[in-house]
Amino acid sequence: MENSRQKYSTNRKPYIYTSEQIEALRTEAKAFLPKRTEELATKFNIKYNKVTIRATRSKWGSCTRQGNISLSLFLMTLPEHLRNYVILHELCHIIHFNHSPNFHALLDILTQGQEKALARELRNHCIGK
Ligand SMILES: [Zn+2]
Predict the structure, then answer these.
(1) DSSP string of 53-90, one letter each residue
(2) Stronger pLDDT, 3 or 24, i.e. the higher one
(3) Which of 42, 46, 55, 81 is the most buried (most CB within 10 A)?
(4) What's the rounded Cα separation, in Å, for the pair 129 and 27?
(5) Are 61 and 72 in contact (CB under 8 A)?
(6) What domain range includes position 69?
(7) Which residues are registered as beta bridge partners of 63?
(8) How many angstroms does the Cα of residue 89 sit away from the middle of ligand 1?
(9) CATH number, domain at 87?
(10) Distance from Cα 86 to the centre of ligand 1, integer Å
(11) Spacing, Cα 102 to ligand 1 middle (Å)
(12) Helices marked H in the chain — which ranges?
């Protein structure tokens, strides 16, 4: 995890990943993201259905009405607090399936008042090519 953060700087764009790097990130993502999602969901008592890891480049994560969360394996290139932020964002969609003020209020509580700061920080990162 530490290594991947140093190896791939998501601050510099466009970073071009080799297929080997993508497979390494997928392995890390599968070991880390479902477990972290479960920990955060348990902590905040949110019930989701399942987590799928995909090589998504258009977004960091998504959530369906059925409670299925999809996370990009490129989350592994982010610092851990931003990874957690993306997971919390998707978990909040289980409660509010929209980006309403109620959604943002809940996410702000779960991030201890850091939602805006974290969203701003995340915008400085882009998914490589
Ligand atoms: Zn959203």
Answers:
(1) EE--SS-SEEE-TT-EEEEEGGGGGS-HHHHHHHHHHH
(2) 24
(3) 46
(4) 18
(5) yes
(6) 2-123
(7) 69
(8) 6
(9) 3.30.2010.10
(10) 9
(11) 12
(12) 2-7, 19-44, 80-95, 101-110, 115-123
pLDDT at 9: 53
Q: What is the pTM of this model?
A: 0.88
Residue 110 Cα to ligand 1 middle (Å) = 14
pLDDT value of position 15: 76
What's the 93 CA to ligand 1 centre distance in angstroms?
7
User: Is 116 within a domain?
Assistant: yes
Distance in Å, CA 60 to ligand 1 centroid: 10
Average pLDDT of every residue of the chain: 91
The number of folded domains in the chain is 1
128 in a structural domain? no
Instruction: Determine, yes or no, domain membership for 47.
Output: yes
